[in-house]
Amino acid sequence: GSNQKKAPVARSTKAGITFPVGRIQRYLRKGRYADRIGAGAAVYLTAVLEYLVSEIVELSGNAAQDNKKKRIIPRHIQLAVRNDEELNRLFKDVTIASGGVLPNIHSSLIPKKKQKKGTERRHEYRHSHNQRRGRIGCLCRRKSVLKKEWKAFL
Q1: DSSP annotation string for 63-124
Q2: Are the CB atoms for 75 and 60 separated by under 8 Å?
Q3: What angle do CA 77, 50, 27 make, to 5 degrees?
Q4: Distance between CA 28 and CA 43 in Å, rounded?
Q5: Which portions of the sequence form the region Disordered (predicted)?
Q6: Distance between CA 57 and CA 19 in Å, rounded?
Q7: Which of the 8 DSSP states describes residue 134?
Q8: Predicted TM-score (pTM) of this structure
Q9: What tens digit of pLDDT does each residue of 19-57 get?
Q10: Cα(38)–Cα(86) distance, rounded to whole angstroms?
Q11: 31 secondary structure, DSSP code
């Protein structure tokens, strides 16, 4: 009956978290961060650590999916952390091994005009060819331009 001892319940279970509260408290004591450690300190720190890890794993998983991979690698963690403003600020002085760098090309290095395709390129070549020969006019106007002008005329 009433004399029996209840089964022990882990503090992690009581707090509703997955990370081990007991182990974190042991680290706090062994680390000699203070002479005394409050009862709630380990629970709070454990909850914070669990939240941060879940956030990073979530974003890293998204980065892995974006790269069509099923396994998270350090590169995905790097991309996740550096693309998130708050995590980037938290980990600004942290180097992630094998993380690589964020793809970034300075705007001044990006070419202004887009490369023209097929017919437009040939059209431009004819222009330059005609100009070199001293011909100013261009008879090779694109069909689409002529069609638009014809419709406007009608």
Answers
A1: HHHHTT-SS--HHHHHHHHHHSHHHHHHTTTPPPTT--------GGGS-SSPPP-HHHHHHH
A2: no
A3: 105
A4: 11
A5: 111-130
A6: 14
A7: T
A8: 0.68
A9: 999 999 999 999 999 999 999 999 999 999 999 999 999
A10: 28
A11: T
CA 107, CA 66: separation in Å to the nearest integer? Answer: 24
Q: Provide CB contacts within 8 A for 71, sequence distance 6+.
A: 64
Contact predicate 129/110, CB 8 Å: no
Tokens of 90: 């938290």
Dist. CA 15–CA 102, nearest whole Å: 38
Domain boundaries for CATH 1.10.20.10 within the chain: 11-102
| C-alpha closest to that of 82 among 54, 56, 53, 48 | 56
pLDDT at 104 over 70: yes
Q: With contact defined as beta carbons under 8 Å apart, do 50 and 19 qualify?
A: yes
C-alpha separations of 82 from 94, 98, 107, 112, 134 in Å: 11, 14, 19, 28, 56
Sign of CA dihedral 86, 90, 94, 98: negative
